Each structure stands twice: as C-alpha cells, then as structure tokens.
Amino acid sequence: MSAEAGPRSPRVMESLMIAGPAGRLEALLEEPEQGAPRFAALVCHPHPQHGGTMHNKVVYRVARGLRRAGAVVLRFNYRGVNLSQGEYGHGEGETADARAVLAHLRGRYPSLPYALAGFSFGSRIVHDLGCGLRDALFLMPVGFPTRWRDLPRFKRCPVRRIFIHSTQDEYGPRAELEPWIGTLDQPSRVVWVEARDHFFAGALDELEQAVIASVPPLDPPA
C-alpha cells in the first residue's frame, strides 16, 4: 500500500538516519498537520561551516509553509553536521547528500509528485540538483546568494523555479539577483518579501505565507 493510500493514520513525524555517500545523515520527516500529503518536498539548510543546520529558523518556516500547502517534508543535516557522518564536501558533497536523501523521500512516497526547496547555501544545492531533473514539480530557492561562487550555469532548466527573496538581502542584493533572473528561461519568477536582511528578520511570518502562496496548483490525479 502506498504511503498516501487507505484510511488516514496519525500524522507521521519521524527522526531518521539515512544512508548517504559519506555515511549516515540525520533527518526529520514530517507530514502535513491536516490531511494526507499531496506532494513530497526536500528542504536543504544553509552553509554548514557557518552554523547552518536543518533547525535553522528560515528552514523551519519554509518547511512548515510547505507542510501547510500539503507537503510531506524531509529536511536533513549535511555530512559533518550534528549527528550526520562525514566532513564538509565543498558543495559537491552536500549536493550528493541531497541526492541521496531525495531518493529516500521518493522511495518512501513513490506515488507523490515532489519538489525541492532550500535556503541560502541550500538554495544553491537544490538549484544545481533540481536543474538536472525533469520530473520535479518545482524548485524553491530561498535567499539565493549571488555572492557565493559564480552564478549557476543553469540558465536553462526543465523545472519551474520560484525564488523567494528578502528585499534587503546582503548576500543576494536585488540589484544583482533581478538581472540574473531576467536572463533565465521561463517559467521562473521571484517573490519579494519585505524584510531587514538575508535571514528575513522581522518577516518570518510573511516568508511562511509567501511559501504557501507560491506553491503552484497540483494536477488532479489521473
């Protein structure tokens, strides 16, 4: 029986250890508070060398917003963070971690469509990973940094991209992000949230509402 079929059982909320390419990865799986999951979403956290974990307040709000929009959400700690095994992988290793965790999520909910979201460094991870896929519902990069490495090569992407960004983001200034987004193939768009900084200071509620409102309508079951 698939995870979403049959009578609705109590909401699933599980702490997990998932096999990753550099060892076990600590993760947290949460189904929606109301109703059966309509889609599955992977959420990636900020830079592990700057205090980023899956419990970051922006990551938590993004995950909760996706749950309120009907997603079962899986967030995790990259290699070397808290209980996750391994060492920092300079972006490439963390992308491999995300790929492994996404495979676990899709295996757990095989009949659900899926999406990817991430904050800051995590937005780069899901962007690079997601643009190599063709069947994801959407990518949701939040606080996409323009000042960490070069801007990604994936101007063309088979997956819909929904950027959510603070109007006062010091790591991705509007004057830098908007022109780059303007070069992307469609469909892609940016949702601006009036906030004081990269971490959506003073606007976490507004961020969560933007996440909910930005989830596109799902196709009805075949």
Describe this structure in words.
The protein is 27% helix and 23% strand. The chain is of the alpha/beta class. The protein has one domain (13-214): 3-Layer(aba) Sandwich (Rossmann fold), CATH 3.40.50. The chain has an eight-stranded mixed β-sheet with strand order 1-2-4-3-5-6-7-8, sandwiched between helices. The longest helix is centred in the middle third of the chain and has 17 residues, at 92-108. The protein is globular. The two termini are 18 Å apart.
Q: Can you tag this structure with a few keywords?
A:
222 residues; alpha/beta; Rossmann fold; eight-stranded mixed sheet; 5 helices; 8 strands; disordered N terminus
Q: What can be said about the biggest beta sheet?
A: 8 strands, mixed
Strand content: 15-25%
Mean pLDDT: 92
Helix tally? 5
Share of residues in helices: 25-40%
Number of domains: 1
Q: What is the alpha-carbon Rg in Å?
A: 16 Å
Q: Which architecture does the CATH hierarchy give at level 2?
A: 3-Layer(aba) Sandwich
Query: What's the total number of strands?
Result: 8
Question: What's the topology here?
Answer:
Elements lengths: L12 E8 L2 E8 L8 E6 L12 H12 L2 E6 L15 H17 L5 E6 L1 H10 L8 E4 L18 E6 L7 H9 L5 E6 L10 H11 L8
Parallel strand pairs: 3-4, 3-5, 5-6, 6-7, 7-8
Antiparallel strand pairs: 1-2, 2-4
Helix pairs in contact: 1-5, 2-3
What is the structure about, briefly put?
It contains five helices and eight strands, in the order βββαβαβαββαβα. The chain is α/β, with parallel strands linked by helices and 222 residues long. The chain starts with 12 loop residues before the first strand and ends in an 8-residue tail after the last helix.
